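Usage

Read records sequentially. Each one opens with the input sequence:
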Amino acid sequence: MHRIYDISRWTLAAIFFYHGLVPKLLFKHPQEVLMNSTMMPAVPEATALLVSGWMEVILAVLFIVLYRNILLNFVAIGFLVMVSIAILIFLPELYTYAFNPFSLNLSVIILSIINLMTRDHARAA
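and closes with the structure output:
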């Protein structure tokens, strides 16, 4: 169980790090620009992308630095559920793409639940 906790924790960190850094901060992917400008219409486009990218990178770092903190899992789950619902309401066409919010967010939510479920076993080890 200890290895499952470690693998799930590091994988969560890697996913958030990648999704904050690559499509938002480094390449400013048009889909990310669209999502961020739609979800944060009062914020300038570049600022919205920068803020959301850095927030994901920081969350990734916190998943490693605060290795036993379960609050981060609940933050991640809550964030992903809210974003998934918001995208379904405001940008439902994104759910038709091959790489879409449903498959990614559901996977990360389940991975976070696995991480929560194996935490106590990892502490005992």
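Summary fields computed downstream for this record:
- Residues 2-124 form one domain.
- The chain has a mean pLDDT of 95.
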